[in-house]
Amino acid sequence: MNRVSLGRNLIVVTAILTIVVPIGVDGFLLAKAHMANPLWLPHAKLHCAMSFFAAISLGLSALAVLWTRPTTDLASAAIAAFLSTTFWMGLVLAGVWPDTSYGFSNDPNLINFQPPVVFGLLVDPNVALALVSIILGWVGFALIGSAVGNVGELNKKI
């Protein structure tokens, strides 16, 4: 597999994660803490559903770019990487907003849910998956750029 194919595949994986994981985890696996949480107001559920549709839209848009444009077009590769990672960047940034939390430690619907400890550090699964997705998407772009030519050429095309 050459670098362009590997890079494209990494962006595809990131886009698929963006489509599947938010709904799979928040909509089904942890539904009691989200959409099926009786403590949530309907407007809060609206925002959760909105994030589902945003993730689907971003992931599908990234896939559409990858399937309709040549991967060797650095601008298209950058757009696909951006679209496939934007949801995850939003998740990381949302956790630093006042009065938000990445975890569920005080959620009465998920008793005893504690994030894993790795090398003595609490690792929140949301943040870990977000960072892995962001890295996969942009490493994919970097691989394409390194195979096609100078990533600096992208600036000339935009």
Total count of strands: 2
Element order, helices and strands? HHHEEHH
Helix content: 55-70%
Annotation field: number of helices: 5
Given helix and strand content, the structural type is mainly alpha
Distance between the termini: 28 Å
The quaternary state of the protein chains shown equals single chain
**Residue fraction in strands:** under 5%
Identify the notable features of this structure and list them briefly:
158 residues, mainly alpha, two-stranded antiparallel ribbon
Structure description:
The structure is a single chain. The chain has five helices and two strands, in the order H-H-H-E-E-H-H. Helices cover 65% and strands 3% of the residues. The protein is mainly alpha-helical and 158 residues long. Strand 1 and strand 2 (121-122) form a beta hairpin.
Summed up:
This protein is mainly α. Helices cover 65% and strands 3% of the residues. A hairpin with a 2-residue loop joins strand 1 and strand 2.
Please give the structural blueprint.
Layout: H1 3-29, H2 42-68, H3 74-94, E1 117-118, E2 121-122, H4 125-148, H5 154-157
Antiparallel strand pairs: 1-2
Helix pairs in contact: 1-2, 1-3, 1-4, 2-3, 3-4
